[in-house]
Translation initiation factor IF-2
Amino acid sequence: ARGASLTDFAEKIGVDAASLVQVLFHLGEMVTATQSVNDETLQILGEELNYDVQVVSPEDEDRELLESFALGFGEDEGADEDMAPRPPVVTVMGHVDHGKTKLLDALRNANVVAKEAGGITQSIGAYQVTTEVDGQERAITFIDTPGHEAFTAMRARGAQATDIAVLVVAADDGVMPQTVEALNHAQAAGVPVVVAVNKVDKPDADPSKARGQLTEYGLVPEEYGGDTMFVDVSAKAGTGLDSLLESIVLTADAELDLRANPDQNAEGLAIEAHLDRGRGAVATVIVQRGTLRVGDTLVAGSAFGRVRALLDEFGNNIEEAPPSRPALVLGLTAVPGAGDNFMVVDDDRIARQIAEKREARERNAALAKRSGRRTLEDLMRE
Ligand code: GDP
Ligand code: MG
C-alpha cells in the first residue's frame, strides 16, 4: 500500500470506507473517505484491523507491476554474449567560472561529426562526440548541463546518469570550494574523475598548482605515480581537447566495464523535458540499455506515449538510439521530470497503466505535502 485515499485502501482490503473513517476518528484523526492519507496512517489502520500493511517503495511498486506483466526493469537481460560495449556518459563539474560551459561548447564544436553535419548543434541537454583512440573510433556522451546540481538532483532520485566526471579546475585559480564539493559528489557516487586543468592560455596559469592541490584530496596525477588523468586544456583556444577525450576513453577502459544489451526494449533516463508549442511534450533521454526506436511505446515518469520521432543533437531524424545515445523524443502525452526513468513496453495499455499509477503517486505526495503531512518516504529522506 502507499499513501492512497481511504476509499482506495478500503476497497483493497475489502471493508467499508465509512468504517475506516470511524476507526480513524477514534484514533483522533479527522479524515474524510476521499482524502489521501499517508503511509503511517495506513499502517496504523492496518494494525487496528489486523492487516499486515507493507509500505512499498515506488521502485518496488513499478517492479511488481512490471513483473506481473513479465517485464524486467533496471537490469540488462540476456546472456553475457548479448552485451556490447557502450560509450561512457560524462558530466562536467567544477567551480563557477572555471570554464565548464565553455569547455562543453568547445568539445561540441570541435567534433568532426558536428562539422560534417553542418556544425549546428541544438541544445537538447546532451550530445555525443567521437574521437580516435588507438586507431579506433570511440564515442563519448556528454551531459550538457554543467555543475553538480543536476548531478545531485538526479542521484537524489536514484538515477545514476554518469559514468565519468570531468572535473574542471582553472589553472589560474586552482582548487576552490565548489571544486571540492564536486569532487566529493563524484567520489560518493563512485564515479571516476578525469581532471581538466583549464585556462592554461592565461599568463598567470599554473597547472602544477592544481595538481598539487588535488593530490591532497586523493586525486593523484598519473605523472606523480597516481591513477588520475590530468589534462591541460584551454577551452578558449581549443587546445588539449583531443587529449581530454582520449583520457576519458582510457579511464573508462581502465576502470569501468561499460556494456549493455542493445537487443532488448530500451530503458534509460529522461534528462530534460519541456512543452514545445509546435511539437508538444519533448524529452531528451539517454538510453542505458536496449535500443529505442521510432514507433516504440514508452513510459517516462508519469508520461507515456508512442515515439513519433527521434532527433539527434543536430535536429536530424534518427530511426533508433542504441545504449548511451542521447535523443530527443517526440510523441509523449506529458512532460516527464528530469531524472525520471523511461522504459519501452510492448503494450500501450501497460504504458498507460504505469503512467497513471505514477501520476497518482505524485498527486498523493503533493497532497500530503500540502496538508503538512509527511509520508514515510519523506521521513526516510530526512
Ligand atoms: P562556468 O561557470 O564554469 O560554466 O564557466 P564559463 O564557461 O562560463 O567560463 C567563465 C569565464 O571564463 C568566461 O568568461 C569564459 O570565457 C572564460 N574562460 C573559460 N575557459 C577559458 C580558457 O580556457 N581560457 C580563458 N582565458 N578564459 C576562459
Ligand atoms: Mg556555466
